[in-house]
Each structure stands twice: as C-alpha cells, then as structure tokens.
Amino acid sequence: MQTAYLLAGFGGQGVMFAGQLMAYAGMEHGYEVTWIPSYGPEMRGGTAHCTVILSDCPIGSPLVRHPQVVIAFNKPSAQKYAGQEDPAGLFVVNRSLVDEVPLAVQGQLVEVRATDIADQLGNTRLTNMVLLGAALAARPVLPLAVLEAALVAHIPAHRRGLLPLNQQALAAGAALVSAAQPG
Amino acid sequence: MSRELLKGNVAIAEAALRAGCQAFFGYPITPQTELLEHMARRMVELDRVFLQAESEVAAINMVYGAACAGVRTMTSSSSPGYSLMQEGLSYIAASDVPCVVVDVMRGGPGLGNILPSQGDYFQITRSAGHGDYRPIVLAPATVQEAIDFTELAFDLAEQYRHLVVLAADGQLGQMMEPAELPSMRSLPRTRPAWAITGAAGRAPNRISSLYMNAEEEEAFNLRIQARLAQICAAEQRSTEVQATHAELLVIGFGTAGRIAASAVEQARAEGLRVGLFRPQTLYPFPAERLSALLACCAVQNILVIEMNAGQMVEDVRLVVAGRVPVHHYGRLGGVVPYPEELYTVIQQHYPSLAASAE
User: Is there a contact between A27 and B176 if contact means CB atoms under 8 Å apart?
Assistant: First the structure.
C-alpha cells in the first residue's frame, strides 16, 4: 500500500516544507518515504511542487502519474493538476486563492479557505499547515500527533517562534475536515 | 546509527567526508550544487580543504594535484561540467592516481537542461577522456546506495590506484529518502609510498602521464589493461528481483532501474513472470551474472529501460550475443518515465502477450 501526495503552489507558500514535514512524519511512523521537489524550469517561474510517497514497502519510483492526494495551494496548480489525482483519491484545494474548482477534479474534493484561516490565526504563511492538517484529517495515514511532533523537530531554528501558530494551523485544518465528515 | 531523511546530493557529500575525503574541489552546477554546498560548510568545519575553483577544468586539475599528493580527493559536477573535465580525467588515469568523480547527470546534449538523464553512459563508461582505458563506474539507485557506493568508490580508487566515477542523475541528487550514514573514519597518519610528499630523506617519486617512446607507452597501457582485467574479474556488482523466475527480464540502472522496479512489481501482481536485473557497476558491466541468468533461467525476452536513446543496451547485447531478443525503451532529454508508462511497455514485450498481439 502506498500513498502519494502532490503538493503544488507558488514559491514562498511553504509547499516544499509541508511536503518534507509529511515525509519526516511518515518516516517517524515507520513508513518508507520519498520526497522529491520540482527543481526544473518551473521553479524559476515562481511555482513549485513536490511529491511525497509513504509506503509499507520499499519505494521504486518517487514519482507517480496519479497521486492519491493532490494539494493545490493556488489557482494555476488547481488548474494544472485537477484530474491528475487518483479517482479514488483526494483533491484538496485552497479555496482562498482558487475561485472556481476545476471541472476536471475526479477524486473526493476537500475545499479549505486555508489562506483566510491562516490570516485569522495571524499569518498567511500558515496556509501550508492548514492545508496539510485538512489533507491528513481527510485521509488519516498517520495520527496528527506524529505530524505535530515532526513539526516540533524540524521547524527551522529561525522560525521556532512561530511553532505554536503552526500547531494551531495544523489543528484548524484538521478540525475543519473532521467537522465536515459524517459520523 | 539511525536512519535520517537525506537529500541524495547531501548524502554523497557527507558520505565522502566520512570516508576520509581530505580535499574537495568543484564548481557549482545544477542539479548537483547541494553537494558542493554541503562540502563548503563541512570541510571547513573539519579543517580540511574545500576550494571552489574558477572552472571545472581547474577543479579537476586541482584534484589531480591532491591525488598525486596521496590524499583522498574528489570533485563533483553535472554533464556539461563533466565534459569540461575530460582532459584532466585522462591525465589522472594515465598517472595511476586514485580519485573519485561524481556526475549528477542532466539532460543534454549541449547546455541541455537541468532535469534527470542517463545520457552520459557512453562518455562515463567508455573512457572518461581520451586514450585507451576505462574508469570504474558505480551507479546508485537509492540514497542509501549513493552513500554506500561513495564509500566504496574511495576504497576501490585506492585499492586499484584507479579513477572511480559515481554515475548519479538529477532525480537521485534532488530526492530525499531515509538512509543511514557511516561513522566518521579517522584520517590516515601516513601517505602512500608512491605519493609526492617532498622527498625529504628519500629518493624522489615521479608521477607523469608522458611516455615519448611507443614501446614504453604500450607497456604502460598493458599494465592498465591487466588492472582492468583484474577489476572485471573482482568488481562486477548487480542486484535483481525475481530474475531467476522471469520470462521477461527488465534491465535498468540507477533511477531508470528503480522506476522499472515499480513497474515490475505491478506486472508481477498481475501474474506476469517479469523480473528485474539492475547493474550497480556499469564498468565493469555485470556480465557474469547476466550470462548466468540467461544460461539457467526461463528468460525469453529482455527489455532494457534507460533515460537515454540506448546506451547500456549495447553492453547488454554484447553479453546476450543474440541468445534472446533485446528490446530498448528510452526517454530522452530530461524526461523521467512514470511506472505506469513502463508497465504498458512491459506488457508490450511480455512473450505470450507480444506473440498474441502479432
């Protein structure tokens, strides 16, 4: 069993860090993991994406055509990756920056006003943690506590002051999805 | 020791200095720059030599000098930079000095792009510079192998006094994966007897790649060839998945090999008798094991998967020598195949499915 995540957005939205955090949490939880960034020409154009895989067995390809979870941080990413998700998977979309959900989405749609929630918490740069919390709640491949522990262990030293806010943002994203799910 | 989440480029750099690399010379180029950056920080911390040269040409000649002085030394680059190093590599090979060179391959030819490729296979395995020799070439597919083969590269370079190239690519350089680093080796207190160390109180050593007399040059070449024969006999390495039960044997190295592993796994789950053979040394090519698989097993068809237009496939064909059909599937110019795509190619070449399609 493997779960592949594709996280995509603008440079500066914390896409790469959110992906790495998922990889760290996966590793701590006992999964085999891979993380691979886009480092090609698209990186220089301002958008960025990374792919994270969590698996029960050794991972061959770190890239997959149809990831189980797509997290679209902005409109260009939502448009580019809609429909690329596994039809049985999730499409998590930051509705603060995506005014229309693309028609091509096939998987379960998880709509989160992540940048608005981050702004209410005091910093729009928490958008990544809100989205990650929501994605994890919608597909709980590991406990939220493991992700929180990974955050404590790997938040860069110069951002350590933002740790409590990051934790709140993760919890807020998770709570949003948990509240929306029946039973 | 415990497993850490490590980026391929960083893992190679850290493994190199733990294996006793005392002097690193390089020049930045994507997608290997993190390797040089890590060295820039760590070598200074350890009070060893890190030098960012003015070019790749300068870097490889500095490596040549450090190698002549008898210390463990290395450089790293990516395809266009590796091309610039060819003259220096040949001089190193012609001087019987050990060193390690990393090529984190990217799309070419020319300036090309910065995306993963395996297009340098010919250049790396055939000579690495002018003349008549081959380097030892190691091809890791995972971050753990990148670490293990970096250590091995230094040991083999020293054991054979021979050039060793680590053939990686942009994907392996950029990806993160859990891996375990070796412990820090202590540096040797003495230099090898052949090294250029000042000749105080002893007869001078001489290291040169110049042989004006053809017979002397031939004698030197024969010594290289004798060493390569020894390397071929002792250093072939490969790994495989269900290769002894395969009707279709998929062969790929490095990144293409690990992506092929995903496709092979899917094919086996669908009931196809498909196996994987992944060369870990590109020179010497693991001919003995491949030949043994052909002699004893059920292989009816071979599919070589590469991120180039068909380079390793030539080495495969030399071993197979017409015994079974050898097919090739390649993605070029920095395109990395998806496992789903390779699964379709496997179906096309699976003996019974291929026969029914005809």
Answer: no
Cβ density class B41-52: b for 16+ within 10 Å, e for less: ebbeeeebbbbe
A183 pLDDT band, cuts 50/70/90, is very low
CB contact under 8 A, B176 and A35: yes
pLDDT at B199 over 90: yes
Residue A126: strand pairing partners: none
Mean pLDDT of B86-106: 97
- Name residue B168's beta-bridge partners: B104
Q: Is residue A72 within a helix (H) or strand (E), and if so which, with residue range?
A: strand A69-72
CB contact under 8 A, B177 and A35: yes
Q: Which residue of B has its CA nearest to A66?
A: B340
pLDDT at position B68 is: 98
What number does CATH give the domain B238-357? 3.40.50.920
The answer to whether the Cβ–Cβ distance between B174 and A37 falls below 8 Å is: yes
Neighbours of A38 (CB within 10 A): 18
B251 near B330, Cβ under 8 Å? no
Question: Given B114, B177, B339, which is nearest A61 (Cβ)?
Answer: B339
What is the identity of the amino acid at A50?
Answer: C
Kindly indicate the confidence band of residue A33, based on its pLDDT and cuts at 50, 70 and 90. Answer: very high
A61 vs B: CB within 8 A: yes
Answer positive or negative: Cα dihedral of B321, B323, B329, B334. Answer: negative
Please state, in angstroms and rounded to a whole number, the distance separating the CA atoms of residues A25 and B327: 41
Q: Is the pLDDT of residue A141 over 50?
A: yes
Taken in order of first residue, the domains within chain A and their CATH numbers are 2-176 (3.40.920.10)
Supply the DSSP symbol for A158.
Answer: G
pLDDT at B5 over 90: yes
Top-ranked range on mean pLDDT: pick from A43-57, B44-58, B342-356:
B44-58
Question: What would the pLDDT profile of B215-261 be if each residue is shown by its tens digit?
Answer: 999 999 999 999 999 999 999 999 999 999 999 999 999 999 999 99
CA distance B31 to chain A (A): 8
Here the tokens at position B114 are: 């910065």
pLDDT of residue B25: 98
Say yes or no to pLDDT of B1 above 70.
Answer: no
Mean pLDDT over residues A96-110, rounded? Answer: 96
DSSP labels for B265-318? HHHHHTT--EEEEEESEEES--HHHHHHHHHHS---EEEEEESSSSSHHHHHHH
| Superfamily of structural domain B4-181+210-234 | Thiamin diphosphate (ThDP)-binding fold, Pyr/PP domains (3.40.50.970)
Answer whether B4-181+210-234 and B238-357 agree in fold.
yes
Domain boundaries, chain B: 4-181+210-234, 238-357
